[in-house]
Amino acid sequence: MYKPLLFFNLLIAVRGLACNFDNGLCEWFTVQDSTVTWKLGSGTTKDPSSGPDGDHSDTGNGQYLYIDGHEFINSTFAAEIRSPDLYILDNTTVSFWYHMNGVGVGELRVVLADRYGGTKTVWTKSGRQGPGWHQAQVILEDITAYIIFQGTTRLHYSSDIAIDDITVSREPYELTHSPLFTTTVTMPTTTTALFPVLPIITLDCAFNADTCSWIQDSADHLDWHRWYGRSPDLTSGPQVDHANTTEYYLLLKGHEAHSGNWTARLYSPHISINSPRNLTFWYHMNGAGIGNLRLYKENADGSNEVLFVKKGRQGVSWEQASVNLPVGFYKLVFEADAARHYSSDLAIDDIRLQDGPPLIG
């Protein structure tokens, strides 16, 4: 029995991500290493040519959060306020009100950041937006990350920006990582959950029942097909699955490709890799029209890094690939194409991840 490394991920319900700032910052906190900071304010700001006259409430007598443009001696400075690390179990809508009025106003951004340094800007507004408060909404997908509000200026004057009344459709959970000690333990067969249970992701898949945690990309041109027995193209593709049985594998049918630019993509959910892990899989690439097979990681900011690639005919047998997965938070993507319309069936099978702590998305 595998005895995993004990690594705690504790969930604590966040009660104060929604915040009107009348009683402080709630669960939000300023980033200490920032040269400039967000401040609590009420009434008008010091700059009469920008900033609100009061908070977003009907009376205008409450507090809001703002940046003082006079403090920005450099337009590259950014004030940041961030949330705790969050595990968002379902799609969550974050709404907030912002005030951006002044000729020197810069940008207001909402950024998602993971604990490995990856960032993704999910909302941005630039320049003067008028004298009133405006509402914005950001839909966050199932993800582990923290939220940052960033404010910048274009000029040293007339550049105050304010935010107020953050609300969420569902409060997410604060995720605290507590590797204060490590030991090996035999996991119990039953547990009583005091906190919501994090979904455990498995990358292992033999494709016999379905595609497991792997998902077909609906935006590509081709599909991966669950297939058993001989592939439909007698000049390419395997005769049986990798285990030499009547079970299933995933097949790219080359005759479905009308262009060499058409691809089939299969991706994993977002995964957190806390230490390097090894991933193995089997592939079959035999035929005069075989294209390319790639495995890459898609980072939170949308950038890609290729981890494995094979091009063209590789022989009549199933071949095994071994890939080192780096530390980080990302999706894995299998991508394949066909060089020709014929003799180009390509297959993958039996994905296995090296033993280690359970993956949490």
Attribute tags:
361 residues, mainly beta, 8-stranded antiparallel sheet, 6-stranded antiparallel sheet
Count of DSSP-assigned helices: 0
- In percent, how helical is the residue content? under 10%
The mean pLDDT is 83
Total number of beta strands: 26
List SSEs in N-to-C order: EEEEEEEEEEEEEEEEEEEEEEEEEE
Structural class: mainly beta
Rg over CA atoms: 26 Å
Q: Sum up the overall morphology in one term.
A: elongated
Strand content: 35-45%
User: What does the main sheet amount to?
Assistant: 8 strands, antiparallel
Distance between the termini: 24 Å
Low-confidence stretches: 1-15, 176-197
Give structural notes.
With 361 residues, the chain is mainly β. It contains no helices and 26 strands. The strands form 5 sheets. Strands 1, 2, 5, 6, 8, 9, 11 and 13 form an 8-stranded antiparallel beta sheet that branches. Strand 21 and strand 22 form a beta hairpin. The radius of gyration is 26 Å and the shape is elongated. The N terminus is likely disordered.
List the topology elements:
Layout: E1 8-13, E2 29-30, E3 39-42, E4 63-67, E5 79-82, E6 86-88, E7 92-100, E8 105-113, E9 119-126, E10 134-140, E11 143-153, E12 161-168, E13 173-178, E14 200-201, E15 215-216, E16 225-228, E17 248-252, E18 263-267, E19 271-273, E20 277-285, E21 290-299, E22 304-311, E23 319-325, E24 328-338, E25 346-353, E26 359-360
Antiparallel strand pairs: 1-13, 2-5, 3-4, 4-12, 5-11, 6-11, 6-13, 7-10, 7-12, 8-9, 8-11, 14-26, 15-18, 16-17, 17-25, 18-24, 19-24, 20-23, 20-25, 21-22, 21-24
